[in-house]
Amino acid sequence: MKYILKIFATLALFAINAIDAQQVVKNDTISGTPLSMTMDKKIDDLLVNMEEKCSTNLANNSTPAWNGGSDDSPKSTPKITIPERELSRAEICRRNPRIMGYKIQLAVVKSNEEAREVGMFFRRRFPNMKVEIDASLRPNYKVMAGSYLTKQSAASDLSKIKQYFKSAVSIQYRVFCVEAK
Q1: Is-contact 133 120, C-beta < 8 A?
Q2: 3-state DSSP assignment of residue 59
Q3: Do 104 and 151 form a contact (C-beta atoms < 8 A)?
Q4: Are 154 and 172 within 8 A, CB to CB?
Q5: pTM check: above 0.70
Q6: What are the Cα distances from residue 85, in Å, to 61, 73, 88, 89, 92?
């Protein structure tokens, strides 16, 4: 009987909390994305009051007195600017020089000498493409070519390379953004 009473009390507590709680929709301050949260209305009111106090304090104290400011300085609120346009490739590359892109894996071989031979064979056929040897799978070596942003951009070169390397595939790999096609 005690257990049934404890279970009933616990369920009643959760039911009361679920009844008092309601869904509150707020807008994100940076991107403006609507955020849905379930919380008590009283807590929502407290958060709104705290946010208003913070914003009025910022507006009233643009430079604090302890930092050389005075009380008669002009009042301004800080603004967060969000670019409304899509970033260009150069801007993306400046922020992230190395990104996850794609390379074409030509072969996986057992020795460094074999990897160099495959690389030289590839360079003779495709002199405009960069070849890289990855030794992270030791004792095996991966021979990879090119740098691409997407799998689709690698597809045209992959079809040409498959004439010489039947097992060539495009794999996800970290590439330099400025080199990628």
Answers
A1: no
A2: helix
A3: no
A4: no
A5: no
A6: 33, 35, 9, 12, 13
Q: Let me know: does 157 contact 146? Beta carbons within 8 Å.
A: yes
pLDDT on residue 22: 67
Q: Which residues of 136-168 are buried (b: 16+ CB within 10 A; e: fewer)?
A: eeeeebbbbbbbbbeeebbeebbeebeeebeeb
Residue type at 59 in one-letter notation: A
pLDDT in tens, 77-98: 666 666 667 777 777 777 777 8
CB atoms within 10 A of CB 60: 10
Please give the C-alpha separations between residue 67 and each of 61, 70, 73, 74, 77, in angstroms, as whole numbers.
11, 9, 12, 15, 17
